[in-house]
Amino acid sequence: xxxxxxxxxxxxxxxxxxxxxxxxxxxxxxxxxxxxxxxxxxxxxxxxxxxxxxxxxxxxxxxxxxxxxxxxxxxxxxxxxxxxxxxxxxxxxxxxxxxxxxxxxxxxxxxxxxxxx
Length: 117
Description:
Helix content is 61%, strand content 9%. With 117 residues, it is mainly alpha-helical. It has two domains: 64 residues, no CATH class; 30 residues, no CATH class. A two-stranded antiparallel sheet has the order 1-2. The termini are far apart.
């Protein structure tokens, strides 16, 4: 267990809350820091660290995507998965299933009729 890494992540999360609070407050950074008793130097230092951490995390996710793995919260579609090749349309109780074999002229006629309904 790397205690330095854990401590840094904890501080980052605490400062993320401070930075977010400042942004939501509508106050200037100077006024906010004065009110909270925070040095402006510390505020800007930690804001920079938060941005750097976010950029590093984004780069990791982009690299993972390029290398074929999937970012957290995403799903990878494999070659074995089939995609639906039909379009199902239902209008006023009329149901149509259209696929690549559907005659375009017939589809146009049906669409004209459905517009009238």
